[in-house]
Design a protein that fits this description.
Layout lengths: L1 H5 L4 E7 L24 H20 L2 E7 L2 E2 L8 H13 L6 E3 L5 E2 L2 E2 H13 L5 E4 L5 E2 H11 L8 E3 L17 H7 L7 H13 L4
Helix pairs in contact: 3-5, 3-7, 5-7
C-alpha cells in the first residue's frame, strides 16, 4: 500500500515460497507456477497471502510486483535452526569431539535445495525483466534429509548411521514430504540456471563452518 500511495513507479520483488504448494504435487512429481497451492504450515499460509495480495495489487493498481517462488535456498550464512546448517554444524561438532549424537526429525522428507547465491541472481533478473511474472526458482532436483546427512557425514569421514538419532520432537505437526520445483519457465525467460549442485552447496557450507573449529 505504501508503494501504491507514494512510489507507484518502482519495481517490487515479493519473496514467495515453495511451502505455498504444501501437499500438491503434479503427476510428474514437480511443482510449478500452475500447481494448486494448499499450504500445510502457518509459514506457508502467510506466504500464500503475500503472494495473493501482490497479485491483487498488480492487477488492481498496475504496480510492477513480481513473485519469485523460491524453493529451499541455503548458504554458509544459514542459521543452525535450518536443517542444512544443523546437519553440517552437528556433524562438525561430532568430528571435533564436542558431542557424539545429532538429534533429527523425519529423515525421509525431500527438498529441492539450491544455493542462495544462484537464487539471488534470479531475483535480480526477475526485477530487471520488462514484465511482471510469477516464477519458480529451483534446481529441479529433490534430495531427502537422509541423503543430506549421508553426504555431509561422509565428507567428514563419518557414518551418519552411528550418530544420527531420531527424536519425534522435531517432526512437524503436518508433515510436508516432498518439494521439487520445475523452473523451466524462469530459466528460459530470465536466461538463468543454477551454478551450484546439491553437493557443491554442502561442500561450501562445510568449508565455511569448519573454519570455526580450527
Amino acid at each position: 500500500d505504501a508503494v501504491k500511495e507514494s512510489f507507484p513507479e518502482i519495481k517490487v520483488y515479493q519473496a514467495s515460497s515453495s511451502e505455498m504448494f504444501g501437499l500438491s504435487v503434479e503427476e510428474d512429481h514437480y511443482q510449478r507456477e500452475t500447481t494448486p497451492m494448499h499450504p500445510v504450515s502457518p509459514y506457508g499460509c502467510s506466504k500464500l497471502f503475500a503472494y495473493s495480495i501482490a497479485r491483487n495489487y498488480r492487477h488492481a493498481y498496475g504496480l510492477f510486483i513480481s513473485n519469485g517462488i523460491l524453493f529451499n535456498h541455503e548458504s554458509p550464512r544459514r542459521g543452525k535452526n535450518f536443517v542444512t546448517a544443523k546437519v553440517v554444524q552437528g556433524a562438525l561438532d561430532i568430528k571435533y569431539g564436542k558431542t557424539d549424537k545429532l538429534e533429527m526429525g523425519n529423515l525421509d522428507s525431500f527438498r529441492d535445495w539450491g544455493h542462495s547465491s544462484d537464487y539471488t541472481k534470479a531475483m535480480i533478473k526477475l526485477l530487471q525483466h520488462d514484465q511482471t511474472e510469477d516464477i519458480v526458482i529451483s534446481t529441479g532436483e529433490a534430495h531427502s534429509v537422509r541423503e543430506l546427512c549421508e553426504f555431509v557425514f561422509s565428507k567428514l569421514g563419518l557414518n551418519y548411521k552411528e550418530h544420527v538419532v531420531i527424536n519425534k520432537r522435531f517432526f512437524r505437526p503436518e508433515e510436508l514430504p516432498y518439494l521439487k520445483g520445475d523452473s523451466r519457465k524462469g530459466r528460459a525467460l530470465l536466461n538463468w540456471k543454477p551454478l551450484y549442485s546439491f553437493e557443491t552447496l554442502l561442500e561450501d557450507m562445510i568449508v565455511h563452518f569448519e573454519k570455526d573449529y580450527s
